Amino acid sequence: MAGPGGPSQRPGGLSRPDELGPLKSEAISSDVVNMSPRAVLDRVTGGRGALAIKYSMVSVIGVTITQVLLVLFIGILDRHPVGSNVAAVSLCAIPVFFLNKRWVWNHDGKVSFRREVLPFWVFTLAGLLLSTGLVALAHSVSDSQVLLMAASIGGFGVLWVAKFLFLDQVMFGHSEREEVLSQEPGGVVVEPA
To answer: Whole-model pTM?
Structure first.
């Protein structure tokens, strides 16, 4: 069967099905993609991988303290699970606040009740209400201490990402405007009144 270019040519200029055609002499280039855990985390968190790691570590500390207090209050002191959860979360919120402020976001200044403590406690209260509701629900179903502890963790887990974004973007994080001005010579950041 004759094609457009002669008896053995196929459409597209190829003579045999296994022929690929002329090779291009240009080198194919590609950028090396860093797939280290930190680089991937930085891409996922918009360059805030180190903050996310520190925030996660503070969360692990907070969960550990809360769970130890729950074991103490419920398991050893035989207190009611709902009241124990309220006490454990309230006691744990203080070191978690200061670890987030000072270690995660490196803010050493005076604590502002209106801009820092109040919003932090709003999130803590939301987590407390959710976790306490889940603890009460779990307690109505079972007396299993493991189930009660899982319910407490679950309530805070739901708010974990939202709290990180709030702390980073609103409460302790620097705005993009401040970052741009700090990189320009003579850039001055003026705090709104």
So the answer is: 0.60
Helix (H, G, I), strand (E, B) or coil at 6: strand
Contact, 136 vs 66, CB < 8 A? no
Structural domain range at position 84: 45-173
Average pLDDT over residues 28-51: 72
Task: Note whether 135 and 152 are within 8 A (CB).
Answer: yes
Please state, in angstroms and as integers, the Cα–Cα distance from residue 186 to each residue in 175, 178, 180, 182, following that order: 18, 12, 11, 8
Encode pLDDT of 50-75 as tens digits: 888 888 899 999 989 999 999 999 99
In a domain, 101, yes or no: yes
> What length is written for the chain?
193
Residue 187 lies in a domain: no
Lowest mean pLDDT among 64-73, 160-169, 184-193: 184-193
SS3 state at 3 = strand
Q: What is the CA radius of gyration of the chain?
A: 29
Angle, CA of 16, 17 and 20, to the nearest 5°? 85
User: Does residue 188 lie within any of the structural domains?
Assistant: no
Average pLDDT, the chain: 77
Domains identified in the chain, total number:
1
